[in-house]
Every structure is written in C-alpha cells, then in structure tokens.
Amino acid sequence: MNSLILTAAISGGESCSFVLGSHINLRKEVFGAELPRSPFRGIRGDWLKSLKRSGGGSGYRLNVTARIKKAQKHEYPWPDNIDPNIESGHLSYLSHFKPLKEKPKPVTLPFEKPLLDLEKKIIDVRKMANETGLDFTDQINLLESKYQEALKELYTHLTPIQRLTIARHPNRPTFLDHILNITDKWVELHGDRAGYDDPAIVTGIGSIDGKTYMFIGHQKGRNTKENIQRNFGMPTPHGYRKALRMMRYADHHGFPIITFIDTPGAFADLKSEELGQGEAIAYNLRAMFGLKVPIVTVVIGEGGSGGALAIGCANKLFMMDNSVFYVASPEACAAILWKSSQAAPKAAEKLKITANELCRLKIADGIIPEPLGGAHTDPAWTSQQIKLTVTKAMEELCEMDTDSLLNHRHLKFRNLGGFLEGSPIEPEKKRNMKKKEADISQATADIEVEIEKLKKAALEGKSQSPGPVISNEAVEKLKQDLDKEMTNAFISMGLQEKLESLKMELSKSPSNSPDQSLSPALKEKADRLMQEFKHNLSRPGSYLGLKQKLQMLSEVNKLGEHKIKAERLKSEINQKLHEQVKGKTEILKMARDRVAKGEKLNEDEIKEVNMIQEELKEMLKSLNLEVVGLRKKILPTKPPVLEEKLTKADEVIKMEIAKAIDAAGLNSKIDELKTEIANGASKETVEKLINEIREGIIANLDSAQLKEKVASTLELPLQETVGAGNHSPDWKSQLKIPPPDTRYRTEDVTATKGNEFEDYFLKRELLMGIYEKGFERPSPIQEESIPIALTGSDILARAKNGTGKTAAFCIPALEKIDQDKNVIQVVILVPTRELALQTSQVCKELGKHLKIQVMATTGGTSLKDDIMRLYQPVHLLVGTPGRILDLTKKGVCVLKDCSMLIMDEADKLLSHEFQPSIEQLIHFLPSNRQILLFSATFPVTVKDFKDRYLPKPYIINLMDELTLKGITQYYAFVEERQKVHCLNTLFSKLQINQSIIFCNSVNRVELLAKKITELGYSCFYIHAKMLQDHRNRVFHDFRNGACRNLVCTDLFTRGIDIQAVNVVINFDFPKNSETYLHRVGRSGRYGHLGLAVNLITYEDRFNLYRIEQELGTEIKQIPPQIDQAIYCR
C-alpha cells in the first residue's frame, strides 16, 4: 500500500502532519470548515493559493513524502557466460519448459479397457501354453490378429465424445513438445509490455528448413504441477495481449505466423473479466484480419470458444485427427440444454465438434493424421505430420500478394454457413438414422470365447498329452495360404512370367490328360523352372514364411499318411487275429506279474510261456509284421584287451578304497550301517551314516596317487588322465584351438606391448578356455586392465567399442573366483537383456574348463525360474540392475561374499534410469568390494559416482579418438520417400557379410523389415516391444548367421558383439553423438574393417554437422563406387 504524508508548517513554529492511505483527506478540525470536493478531495482552493503566495521564509510550508512498497525482485534469466554455439538449436535460457524427470504414467481411457482386458487374457493363455508345453502358436496368432482388427475398428469409428477424451489425454503432446520436434531453432519470447506474462500462452520465433516463423500457442501442463502453473491452458487477457504484440512484430518484420490451439477456453474468473477479457479477445479478432503475413492455425487438442478463436483467425485452419473445436464444451452445453452434464455424449454429437464434421462444414481446411491410439503413442511422428502440412500450406500462401492474402482470409470466414435469395429450393431430405459406431462387443465376445477354449485345452493338456488333431478346414486354409505365398514368391523372384508361359503351354499341349506324360521339352522347362525356384528358396533367411508353411504341410501330409496306415493295419489285425489271442496274452500277463513280485515259475509254466510266445510270433509273421519286442538289446561290446584293462583298473580302485577304509577305521561304521538297514532304520539315519563314511574315505584317499595307478594300469600317457594334462609342458597341443583370424586388423587392437596371457600367471584351466575361444594375445585394453584388476584395485577404464572390453573384465573375474565356495563372488551389471546373455555366454566359454557356475538374469524373464536357479550354486551373476536388486531385496540373491562388482557400458548404467538401483545394490556388498567401470564414454554422472564410491581408482584411457580407426563413414543426402530405393541400391553394390540397419522407432523397424523382405533380401527385425523369447531367438539366429540383414532400434547399440557384421546403415539418422558412436561401433569389431552409411534428409543436416564436431570425426559424402578393400579386406 502506498502512503502520502503532508506536513503543514507555519513560520511561527506551529505545525501539523498526518499520514493517510491511498488518498489525501484533510480533517475539518484542522482547517476549521467543511471543505468542498475538488480534485484533491477536500483541500480548499483558496487555502492552496495562500500556500502558494507564502513563498519563501514565512508563511506555510507544505512537504509531501510518498512511501512506496518495495516490488518483488525478479531473477535475471541470462547466465553470466553465454555459449554462442547452441548445440540443440533451441535457446532454453528464457524457457521454463524442461524435460520431465519421470516418464508419464500410462493412462487407459474408458473405451479402451475391454481391449486391454483382452490383451491381458491373451498373455495369460500364452503363459499357460508355455507351462503345459502345448503348441498354440497358430491360435494365439489368430487371436492377436483379431485383437488388432478390433483395435483398428475401434479407432476408425470413434464417437465424438471418445475423440474428446483422446484430445484431453494427459499424455497428449503439448504445443512446446511439437515446437521442439519441428523447429531447427527456437527462442521463446515473453511479456505483453504491461508488466504481465501469461504462461498459458507461449510465443516465440523459430525456424523450419531455414525459414523464420512466429509461433503462438496455448500451452497445457504435462502433470498436475505444470497444469496449475499454466492455468490448464486457459489464458487471461494478458496472454491475448502478449499474442497480439507478437503478431504485430511478425507483421512488421514479415514473418509468417503459425498458431497452435489447445485450450478449453479463455479463463472465466472475475479478475479476468475486470481486466477486459472480452475486449482483449475482440481486439485480437479485429487485428488478425488486417495482418499482412500468412497465418496458419493447427488445432492440436481441444479448441474452446473465443479463447481459441482469438489466435485462430487464419488463412488456413488444420485439425488433428482426434482434436475438437467447439463454441461451448459438451459438458456446458448439456448442462444448459438438458440440465445435466451426463448428456455430454449427446451434446458432443449435436455440436459437430470433430475434425471430419468441421471439414465437411468447410470450417477446417484439412485433417492431420495421428497414429493408431492417438498422438501420445508416437509424438515424434505426429510432429512430423504437422510440419509437412504446415510447410505445404505456407508455400501456397507465401506465393500470394498482400491483397490476395487479406482477401483470402476475409472470404474464408465470410463463406462460413450460407443462404440463397430469390429462388425457392427443395428441402434437404434426411434420414433419421444413427451413424455407425464402433461396436466391438461382438468381436471381444468372440475373442473371449476362443480364449476360454484355449485355456480349457491347455488345462486338459496338463493331465494328458493328446496327439495332434488337425481339422480338414485347417488343412484347406493352410493350402490356400501356401498358394498365396507361392504366388508372391514367384513374383518376388521374377519367375511369374515364366510360370504363366508354362501354364499357357500346358493348356495348349495335346498331352495334358492325366493318363499321358508331358512332352520332353515341357518337362525340361518345368524342371528348370522348379530348379531355379528351389535355388532361390534355399538362400538363408529368405522366404521364411513360405518355408515354414511348406514344412507344416509336409508334416501334415506325413501325419495323414501315418493315420491311414495305422487305421488299415488296425483293421487287418482285428480281422486276422483270433479270439484265442486274448487268452494267451492274459496268461503272459499273469506270468509277468508273478515274476515281478519275486515268485518263481515251475518248468511247466515256463514251457507254456515259451510256447505261447512262439505262437504269437507266428501269428504276427503271418500279418507281415516284424517281431522286435522279444529281442535282447544289443549293446556295443568292448574290445577284449580293453575289457581286461578296465577289470584290473576296477580292482586297483577297490583296493585303494579298502586301504582308505582301514586307515580311517570305518569298518565299524560300515557294520553299523548294515545293521541299521536290516532293522529298517529311517532314511535320515541311513543318509547320515553314508555321508560320514564317504567323508572319511575322501579324507584318507590320495587321489593323485590313485590317478597315477589307474593310468599305469591302463597303460595311458600321463597327460591323458583326467586333470593331469595341466602339468604337461605340451598342454597347448591338446586344445581345440579355432583357426587363426587372418583378416586385417587396425592398431586399435594390434598396438600392444607384446604381452601374452601366460604372463599374468592365470589358472591353466582359464588359459585353456582363453585359447580355445580364439584369443591369441591380449588387446591394449586387456593388457592395461587384467593385471590391475588381479591386484584388487578399482578401475575406471575407457576404451573404444569392439576392442575387447568384455574379456578385459571377464578374465580377471574368473581368475579371482574360488571354485570351492558356492557363493556369489562376482556381479556383472549390464544395461540390456541381449548384452547380459552375450556376456554370460562369454564367461561360460572362457571358463568351460573351470568348475564355475555362471547365471544370467534380466527383466522380462521368469522370476520364479531365477529364484529356483539361485538355490543352486552360482559363482558369477550377470544381469540388469533392476532384476538383481529385486532378487537381493527378496533375500534370494545373497551378496555378502561378493568381492567384485563390474559395470559394463557404465555411462548408460549411471544415467538417471539405472543409478538409483545401482546405489541401493552397492549397500548390499561388503565394504572391501572391488568396482570396475568400463565404457567408451564417461559423462559427468560418472565423476560424481567415482567421487563417492571409487576413492582411488586406477584410470585407463585409450581414447585418442572416439570412433574406431577401421570404420569408414559416409553420408548420402536423400528424400524420405527415396530411402528404401537407396537401401536397395546399397544392397546390390556392397559386399555385405552381415549388416545392421538402425531406425528411430518401433513402427519404422517393422515397416522397413517388411519392405526389405519384399525386395527379396533376407531380413530379421528386433525391438524392445517384442517378447523376450522372440528377441532371444532372433539374436541367436542372427549371431549364428541365419540371416544377412537385421533391422533394429537403439536396443542393439550397446555392447552387442557380432564379428561378421561389416556394414552398419543408419536408415534414420540419430539425434545425438553418443547414440551415433554406439551404432557405428557394431561394425569393425576387434580391429576389423567396417563401413557406416548414413541416410541424411534435409532435417538431419544440423545433427550431422554437430555430431562431426562433437566426435572429431569426418563423415564423407558417399562416392559412386566404394572400394571393397576399405571394409572387407
């Protein structure tokens, strides 16, 4: 509150002063009379004149003092040191919009719940089928296809109220989400120049494809806190005045204007009305029709009333597929007309608020598509659709001159609605029929019935295992599908014309009756066509669906033939065998039961049994059946010399055991055991005595001496005995070492100090595994890390991808494990499931001669199986942090004896996603644990972790440059629609052993894999949304060379080691350098040569330049011809 102090003083020394509020009020008692009203509210004019006349030293003196309350100090938004090089293109100093720390929680809309329940039931059926071991693959695939059809049907026929719920979805992308996706550069601008900045409307300048635009839009929050801050996207008058200021700036500088509408309406509180809400909206409406620049508006959510129209008077208005635009919300309309908001669905239908209805009424100029399920399912794709639509509209509008542009905008709104004067017209005939709605009740009911049938069959399968039952309808459907697959295969192989030509000749041939054979020329032509077809079909990884169906049909035919033979044989046996067979078999059965009970048969009974057997054999022979049930099993006989040696060795072993029994004094224990067994002692007592005797024998038995005696008895060389070969100087000659790798290698792995694995004094059994794995000598990272890790020091190691980091920590881990202690001694943490499986396999291969048990555990696998496995001995545990922490908290995974913690791909593990789990996991380890960190990059988060948990680590840095020396990198500028054609060209020109093709989204992975298969190339695909078993199978098959090309997301960027991959193709260019580095590192593994090809669109050019600068590498433009020597020497 402001205050004013008046001090009136007379020269004689009398004075009076008083402090008043927001106005001056001189009291009657002071001035002696009631003062008339004046601009000074009670100060008499002649008195003021007298004050003026008093002038200098005598008379009255009037002092005026104002006290003003201190205003709140605002923080200065600019930092002290501004980096002029903006990496992302978005200037974030003036923006309060930051990435969310937590992922938004999934929200299921009410009309989606039936399908969600069905999806859960299908998953339950799949689990039940896995538990029973029955094969319901076809039925489950059929259910899933029906589910997808029901989902598509639902979203194709959404009601207006359902589209409204999608438009209000909490996870729907906001204005700033789209802006950051579609702009190359972006600067947010604030304020209405009257002291206010409404957060519900965001304005700023941005560029798309090098052209500058003014962006204005409503901004909702992404969570409750942001919604409160943004006032739920409902602007006040300050927001509309801010928008008007920016529009005038754009008009002055010639920037086209793009506005985004997403608001329930203008904020309708008393304060806003007092500040002129209606006046601000009206002023914007009038001003927008006079702007001389193109204006395009996009409704991305809900557009309510004048609050939306205040920034929506544009030349063109586009709406998202699931957006709405209304004069009043359906709930408000229902409350006015039907006195209840429950009638909102009816009001939504009558208001015509959807994009299709508004396009029909010519209010909207176009509809921007959304992915199935709404924009929140794939925000990036949705933003690109907005970008394409807006840029196309702007190109059209920018060609108009100023007068045409203004006239275009005026006519758009003047043509809304319509009337006709002067001539009568016939009334429009309408049918009072309700529009079709998406009724998925019948579809869901059918799916539920089939699910229940499958569940019942699975439950019955637990008690019995019926043979395969294949209906005739299923066989016919299989044949039809096979015909379609064959036709498609002939077309893709380019053999369709030859096939049609052969059919034409067969139809014209006179010898086309069933009783006549083909002519030699036709037969030769048909054989040649089939030979070519089989040759194309035999290529690895090609036409997998067709091969599977051919195999299924072959098995079905075999089953049919077996069934026919079995029925015929059964009929013949029933006809030819006499009734007396039943009596004979009963006699044999009784004799067998008596023998089983320990009874003896007399001579007459034995003769009778033999006679019956002979009679039965004769009967079966008469039916042309071979009798095999009475033959004795023929076992392979041992050579007489070996049999004699084994007998002598057995005697030696028994003699040594007898000596050990005498030395330990165990004869009395053995007698006691015999007595207890004779007296029928309990199982626990007998087992206790047996264990005591066994332990006594082992303690007094010299195993080394026994091995030597057995070896001398068998006359074997000493190195051929079990365990004795480790002491032979020629132990390497006995190993199964793979042939040496003669491919060219770069100095990334060849620039070593000349050390050998034997220089580190490793266990002989571990050395055997190392050499049989194909390792000849340590790589640079292995030379640096293995000896340091064996000393027990903490390690922070940084080395390039594909230089042997996995073996660098697996070898010391296996060396330090005590095989006699059945506890977890080493834990290896990795960020992905595939990397966990790969690392555990490397540990098993290196330690296959050791008695070390390795286990892998990751999320997405059976927790029950992991718990059961941990009850068995485990020495080395490989897994993802979340799963290991979960098992540890349950008390199943005990880490009190774990002396070594290894973190592979540490930069990813120490991100916000994993770091909390890892820090909790460390608290379960002993205080003297050893921590090893390995990665190609170390961000700032690693330093913080090192300071807290690695006080004095040994630091290894072998990164003179980030990318591998053997990888040649190229880029090719293409349009989005030309990418598949470009990929086909690369396949035809490059010498590819195996290739990995990266995409930026799951949908693009599946679509691209389908396109590659249609082009005739073998192709697998893998992404994070696949079932874990399916992912494991694809990874295993691709690693074993079953397919040449693999399309994947960034799931495959970290640590995956497939030596045969020599080409990596970035079909979608990555957005950051770290992802790019890990992607191209999948080729050129372990010093070999590789090739990375990047398909760059116009939007990717800034990312290309930035990644080159950050990595310090050169990505060249692809030449017309690529020398094979640079990637497959």
Describe what you observe in this structure.
Pathway: Lipid metabolism; malonyl-CoA biosynthesis; malonyl-CoA from acetyl-CoA: step 1/1. GO terms for molecular function: acetyl-CoA carboxylase activity; ATP binding; carboxyl- or carbamoyltransferase activity; hydrolase activity; RNA binding; RNA helicase activity. Its main location: cytoplasm. Keywords: ATP-binding, Coiled coil, Cytoplasm, Fatty acid biosynthesis, Fatty acid metabolism, Helicase, Hydrolase, Lipid biosynthesis, Lipid metabolism, Nucleotide-binding, RNA-binding, Transferase. With about 1150 residues, the protein is α/β, with parallel strands linked by helices. Among the domains are: about 5-65, no CATH class; about 165-400, 2-enoyl-CoA Hydratase, Chain A, domain 1, CATH 3.90.226; about 640-725, no CATH class; about 745-955, Rossmann fold (3-Layer(aba) Sandwich), CATH 3.40.50; about 965-1125, Rossmann fold (3-Layer(aba) Sandwich). The strands form 4 sheets. Strands 4, 5, 6, 7, 8, 9, 10, 11 and 12 form a 9-stranded mixed sheet that branches. Strands 15-16-14-17-18-13-19 form a 7-stranded parallel sheet, sandwiched between helices.
